[in-house]
Amino acid sequence: MEIGQLSAFINPGYSASGLLVGILVGLTGVGGGSLMTPLLVFLFGFAPKTAIGTDLLFAAITKSSGVLVHHHKHRSVEWKIVGLLALGSLPSAIAVIYLLKYVFTKDEHITHIMTTTLGVTLILTAISIILRNYLAKRPHEVAVQRKTHHERFGRWQAPLTILTGVVLGTLVTLTSVGAGALGVIVLLFLYPRLATVRIVGTDLAHAIPLTAVGGFGHWLMGNVDFVLLGSLLIGSLPGIYAGSYFSAKIPEKYLRPLLATILLIVGTKFVL
User: Fold this and answer.
1) Staple partner for 77: which of 1, 24, 86, 201, CB 3.0–4.6 Å?
2) Is 1 domain-assigned?
3) Which residues in the chain belong to E strands, given as ranges?
4) Structural domains in the chain (count)
């Protein structure tokens, strides 16, 4: 394939953005959607629905390799919890796609719904980044409860997990944000005695079918740019590897507050 033909499928600018986001994801562990979607909207001028639809398929592909590591190497996926989350998230994702396609048919309505929800979700993500370390460091409190990680809310545990799936399915399909940072923070609250690596692995495993269903729905609506998708993948995959490699050398206590501040500012801009 000649360079001219290759450039028709790959945009260096998009790949560079994918590389940057990949590095930040590797460094901080924060989901790419909260970083990628605002970047595509503000820097490259993509319509929110195209940025969101493309980013959902992008997330489904990039998260798959992470789940393989968590499942095969660390054995850190709680599949029962994944099933409960999916029981709520997948139907809600399909419902959102249906509403966007057949009920809210005007572009301006769809754009308003997506941008407002995106702004609120980014603000919640910023808050979750700040709270995550606090919730992850409470062993002395949870040990007193003398309950397994499935029993914190007794008979309400499963319904609350399904309800969490409903909320995540709605937010992720509307914004492409929330499957990572928000999912982890809620699971840390619902399952406080579950090891953090198992929380992350479980959240990651749930994010794949959710982002795949949401992304496929947006694809049917014509909201996926495949040149953009391919370019982002080419940049992000080495970026995630590089970020993960250097993550131990850069203090997280500086990165996370900075990232939270940026997301808070961007989220506020979307809402206003």
Assistant:
1) 201
2) no
3) none
4) 1
Tell me whether residue 136 is in a domain. Answer: yes
> Residue 195 falls within a domain, yes or no?
yes
CB 132 within 8 A of CB 192: no
At 163-203, the pLDDT tens digits run 999 999 999 999 988 777 788 888 888 988 888 778 878 88
Residue carrying the six token digits 């953090």: 196
**Is 131 among the domain residues?**
yes
Q: Which domain holds residue 78?
A: 13-271
CA dihedral defined by 199, 205, 210, 212, rounded to 10 degrees? 150
Rounded alpha-carbon distances, angstroms, from residue 103 to 78, 90, 96, 170: 36, 19, 10, 16
Helix count and strand count (H, E) for the chain: 12, 0
Rounded CA gap, 34 and 129, in Å? 11
| CA dihedral sign, ordered 202, 229, 223, 30 | positive
Residue 33 in contact with residue 210, Cβ under 8 Å? no
CA 258 → CA 80, 168, 183, 264, distances in Å? 35, 25, 21, 10
Q: What is the pLDDT of residues 10-25, one digit of tens each?
A: 788 899 988 888 887 7
Q: Say how many residues make up the chain.
A: 272
Kindly tell me the sign of the dihedral angle through the C-alpha atoms of 256, 113, 162, 69: negative
